[in-house]
């Protein structure tokens, strides 16, 4: 949830750490701080709130001459957002930043208090700083090793020691952390929660294995295993570009990422379409029996990933006739799911670090089931823990509200469905080729939807002051309205409820009164008349309906207050396009309401705590 950075090199560490923190701000923005070494002292700056507050404090100070330091942007767990609770947390000998949760912090704290340690913050992180201090006898590796044997929970730590003026240390478990290497042999090295924080400087990085300790000097990185033996770590090269991680002229990352969707989807699916049919050999799924061995599927995820999972369930069940359970990861992990050796468990995650999804995956692994992850971040924990991984190629998604990650996940659901249909001989190659062509046409039409941005923006003025919106849809549109409502809630702070069109009259219709805002999707032709009847049920009770329909549909004028016609695409592929309209609706509404679109309150991009 929090963002961690570290730097050692020949340039000004303050500037580089601040750059990194701005890139990681999407991970949390309750407070921020840095500790840097100048001469032989550790200097710390921290501030409650967004990184701009920290920058203002730094600007007011005399210029710091430092080439080494650590930084942090916080999503508060233990202790309210405040200057005191902001990281780094320091002792007389070290300074430390932390992403994660130390579950046994209370026990450790009690023992440290008995030893005379004093605590000034409410955080679990200060406990880690004092614990390492208490174990420190001049060798950071030994102190860190001993500390992580005691600590239970998740952590990505970056640490500097006052008597090790040229080194930064890092270790992680259950939280992401990479070590990035200076470009072209440049004398500098970095630590970051993810590569986007340092893309400006390098694209070469090492994914830290859990509990290994990294020791960074400006001209050398050493990685130590659990026995403190130095090991050779694999260096990866990020194919994400700096431009992808920048706003590039857009007002917000969210609108940039909405516009990136056609490319992101094509980047994701084209390499997996070989001779017109789906092919997952590049994902190392070489055995065709993989697609036929199972008789039950679970698809697990959280939030937006869960909504992509729901589309997957519907597609696989409709087309492949295999029962598919869709489960919220935080529920699944504490259930006793029916898992047999004929179950395939699919885990969907943009970040690949979501704690609940990872725990659900571990449960499935313990039960001996095959797991397949659909993940956007290369080398992330979920990707590494699952048997198979299909990477989506959306590029970095910075906006907290997920848009392009959803679309690529949905696109993969189509390909998986087609692959299973083909492998199980439910459809022949010719039929699959036609479906894929239709899917590509649907992707093409996203551009038309993006061109409707201004038209949709004009409608959002209606939502400037509203307190709640009901979303309704049926069939595939139902999953879309769930995702549309989530987008609207998280960035515009309007209370939204998403309902299946036929369900409202079973209770919720009592909330519809004169002027209630309703957003309805009536796109699925086979259910159109039923959906229109459901809409009329709310119109006749005074609802103001914004209706999204499909070009060519003949809709009664008394079924809506305002209408937008979306491009005419085959029903099955409509989700690829229609979600764009709902994303734009949420985005423009949030802007009109003056909300901080990319950094909505209380949220963080990747939820690495339970
Ligand atoms: O990284 P993940 O895909 O695992 O994240 C799952 C959810 O936390 C995420 O989709 C969240 O719901 C987004 N903020 C939605 O826009």
UniProtKB/TrEMBL annotation:
Its main location: cytoplasm. Residues 286-426, 459-600 form the SIS domain. Keywords: Aminotransferase, Cytoplasm, Glutamine amidotransferase, Repeat, Transferase. It catalyses: D-fructose 6-phosphate + L-glutamine = D-glucosamine 6-phosphate + L-glutamate. The active site is at 2 (nucleophile), 605 (for fru-6p isomerization activity). GO terms for molecular function: glutamine-fructose-6-phosphate transaminase (isomerizing) activity. It is an enzyme of class 2 (transferase). It holds the Pfam family SIS. Its EC number is 2.6.1.16. Catalyzes the first step in hexosamine metabolism, converting fructose-6P into glucosamine-6P using glutamine as a nitrogen source. Homodimer. This is Glutamine--fructose-6-phosphate aminotransferase [isomerizing]. The gene is glmS.
């Amino acid at each position: 949830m929090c963002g961690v950075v570290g730097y050692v090199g020949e340039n000004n560490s303050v500037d580089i750490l601040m750059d990194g923190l701005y890139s990681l701000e999407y991970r949390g923005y309750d407070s921020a701080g840095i500790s840097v070494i100048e001469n032989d002292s550790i200097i710390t700056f921290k501030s409650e709130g967004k990184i701009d507050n920290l920058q203002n404090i730094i600007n007011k100070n005399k210029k710091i001459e430092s080439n080494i330091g650590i930084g942090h942007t916080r999503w508060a767990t233990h202790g309210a957002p405040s200057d005191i609770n902001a990281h780094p947390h320091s002792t007389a000998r070290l300074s430390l930043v932390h992403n994660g949760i130390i579950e046994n912090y209370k026990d450790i704290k009690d023992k440290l208090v008995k030893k005379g340690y004093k605590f000034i913050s409410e955080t679990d992180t200060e406990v880690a700083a004092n614990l390492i201090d208490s174990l420190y006898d001049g060798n950071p590796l030994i102190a860190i090793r001993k500390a992580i044997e005691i600590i239970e929970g998740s952590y990505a730590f970056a640490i500097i020691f006052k008597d090790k003026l040229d080194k930064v240390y890092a270790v992680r478990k259950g939280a992401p952390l990479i070590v990035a290497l200076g470009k072209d042999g440049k004398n500098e090295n970095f630590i970051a929660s993810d590569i986007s924080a340092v893309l400006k400087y390098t694209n070469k990085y090492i994914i830290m294995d859990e509990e290994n300790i990294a020791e960074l000097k400006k001209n050398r990185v050493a990685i130590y295993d659990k026995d403190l033996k130095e090991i050779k770590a694999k260096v990866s090269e990020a194919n994400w570009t700096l431009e992808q991680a920048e706003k590039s002229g857009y007002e917000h990352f969210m609108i940039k990422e909405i516009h990136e969707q056609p490319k992101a989807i094509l980047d994701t699916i084209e390499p997996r379409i070989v001779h017109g049919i789906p092919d997952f050999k590049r994902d190392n799924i070489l055995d065709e029996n993989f697609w036929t061995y199972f008789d039950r599927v679970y698809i697990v995820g959280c939030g937006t990933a869960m909504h992509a999972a729901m589309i997957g369930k519907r597609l696989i069940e409709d087309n492949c006739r295999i029962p598919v359970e869709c489960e919220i990861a935080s529920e699944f992990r504490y259930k006793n799911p029916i898992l047999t050796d004929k179950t395939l468990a699919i885990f969907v995650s943009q970040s690949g670090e979501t704690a609940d999804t990872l725990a659900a995956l571990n449960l499935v692994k313990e039960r001996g089931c095959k797991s397949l992850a659909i993940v956007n971040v290369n080398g992330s924990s979920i990707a590494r823990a699952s048997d198979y991984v299909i990477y989506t190629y959306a590029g970095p998604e910075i906006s907290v509200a997920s848009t392009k990650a959803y679309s690529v996940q949905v696109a993969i659901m189509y390909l998986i469905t087609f692959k299973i249909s083909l492998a199980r001989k439910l459809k022949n190659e010719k039929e699959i080729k036609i479906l894929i062509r239709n899917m590509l046409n649907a992707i093409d039409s996203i551009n038309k939807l993006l061109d409707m941005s201004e038209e949709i923006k004009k409608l959002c003025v209606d939502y400037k002051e509203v307190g709640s919106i009901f979303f309704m849809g049926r069939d595939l549109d139902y999953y879309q309205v769930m995702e549309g409502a989530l987008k609207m809630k998280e960035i515009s702070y309007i209370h939204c409820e998403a309902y299946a069109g036929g369900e409202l009259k079973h209770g919720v219709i009592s909330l519809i009164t004169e002027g209630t805002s309703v957003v309805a999707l009536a796109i699925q032709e086979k259910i159109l008349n039923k959906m229109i009847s459901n809409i009329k049920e709310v119109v006749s009770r005074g609802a103001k309906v914004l209706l999204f329909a499909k070009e060519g549909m003949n809709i009664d004028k008394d079924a809506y207050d305002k209408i937008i016609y979306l491009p005419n695409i085959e029903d099955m592929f409509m989700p690829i396009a229609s979600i764009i309209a709902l994303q734009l609706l949420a985005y423009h509404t949030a802007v009109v309401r003056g909300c901080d679109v990319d950094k909505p309150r209380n949220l963080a991009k990747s939820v690495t705590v339970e």
